[in-house]
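Researcher: Structure for this, please.
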Amino acid sequence: MAISFKARVSAPADVLVSQLAGESVILNLNSECYFGLDEMGTNMWSALVKAESIQAAYDSLLAEYDVSEDQLKQDLTELLGKLIDKGLLEVAES
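Model: Predicted structure, token format:
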């Protein structure tokens, strides 16, 4: 799945997020699908749902972590794909 970094993502209304000790559990109430995130995944989630675009979230994360651009793009794209496939995030093209 090709995801444009110009797009914005948001959590659907039927998705709940619970954070504890830096980690998160995300639950889709309709499908009863849940997904656990470690501390880094939780930070990615937060950046994604707060940013104006995936690119803005990427830029924010790149400034925060000592990671190569390619590695971050790969990790972020992989996480996005999983969350979108499970109905935990929605993409809105800008």
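Researcher: Any notable elements?
Model: The mean pLDDT is 93. The chain has one domain: 8-92.
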